[in-house]
Amino acid sequence: MASNIPKDHPRYLSLMTRERMADALKRGLIHETGLIAHGRGEAFDYLLGEKTPDVADEAARVAAAHLLLAKNPVISMNGNDVALAAAEAVELAGAVNAKIEVNLFHRSPERVSRLVRELEAAGGKGVLGENPDALVSGLSHDRAMCTTDGIHSADVVLVPLEDGDRCKALLKMGKTVIAIDLNPLSRTARGATVTIVDNIVRAIPNMTRHAKILSRVDRETLLEITHAWDNEEGLRRVMEIMVQHLSQASFP
Ligand code: ATP
Ligand code: MG
Q1: Is the CB of 186 inside a 6 Å radius of any atom of ligand 1?
Q2: Which domains does the chain have, with CATH numbers?
Q3: What is the mean pLDDT of each run of 10 residues along the chain (252 residues)?
Q4: Cα–Cα dist 237/244, whole Å
Q5: For ligand 1, is residue 182 a contact (CB within 6 Å)?
Q6: Which of 14, 92, 174, 186 is the least crowded, having the fewest Cβ atoms under 10 Å away?
Q7: pLDDT confidence of residue 145
């Protein structure tokens, strides 16, 4: 991946991430609309000051507790997720003993296979998704395809950058849904059980960090952590931060 972005550029990280996305498009890992979704995310990250707010850190801790308590936790990965956080997701899966399943909105068997290979190259073992044998209820065919051992039977599903319809369908199946979504107004963010309003590149390593700490904690304490979370209140706090950023912006 060739880059001429100077290291001292104030938006270095953001610009490098863009290059990763462009590279992922060329390699057939992401769908072209994935670039647009990424741009929407960038805009909201700008309003966060491109750093993890306390409330997103708390959400990441609650999410880690849910994953540790789960019987069959599954991390659902799409093209953007793999392009931005393949190795990080593999590490999280190891820390909470979760399965990884590739699940796409714009599904093609070839792209699913490319993403599975990419996750395996990052250390993922037994990555699911290439042989779907079940459907998420209440969704039209392609988007609904999943595996019996993975998403279909999961009690807790982590869905970074998920579409609102699928998030709703997973909730309707009785699952605990953890979303990572920079847009606190999206249907996914508003519908999920726990929403981490943060960039996936920061949120997943942060969840792993919390999971490692919480793995030494008893179940009762983990349950208390999950019960204490109010997702609507969390979203309100994030929106306040974004509004503050806008209202305090001064012009030279
Ligand atoms: P919904 O269907 O939930 O109403 P949407 O249609 O606005 O949401 P989608 O295109 O379905 O959005 O999903 C992309 C979502 O992912 C957007 O809300 C966007 O803000 C978010 N997003 C994009 N890039 C990132 C990123 N790097 N980290 C976290 N979230 C991101
Ligand atoms: Mg959508």
Answers
A1: yes
A2: 54-242 (3.40.50.12640)
A3: 76 89 97 96 95 98 98 98 98 98 94 98 98 94 92 98 94 98 98 98 98 98 98 98 88 64
A4: 11
A5: yes
A6: 174
A7: 96
Q: Whose alpha carbon is nearest atom 23 of ligand 1?
A: 41
Q: How far, in Å, from the CA of 82 to the mean position of ligand 1?
A: 15
pTM of the model: 0.96
The Cα angle at residue 99 between residues 129 and 26, in degrees rounded to 5: 50
Report how far ligand 2's centroid is from the alpha carbon of 187 (Å). 7
Exposed e or buried b per residue across 139-162, where buried means at least 16 C-beta atoms within 10 angstroms of its C-beta: beeebbbbbebbbbbbebbbbbbb
- Ligand 1 atom with least separation from CA of 183: 20
Please state, as a whole number, how many other Cβ atoms lie within 10 Å of the Cβ of residue 83: 23
Residue 29 has what DSSP assignment? S
106 lines ligand 1 (CB under 6 A): no
The count of other CB atoms within 10 Å of the CB of residue 12 is 13
The model's pLDDT over 219-233, given as tens digits with 9 standing for 90+, comes to: 999 999 999 999 999
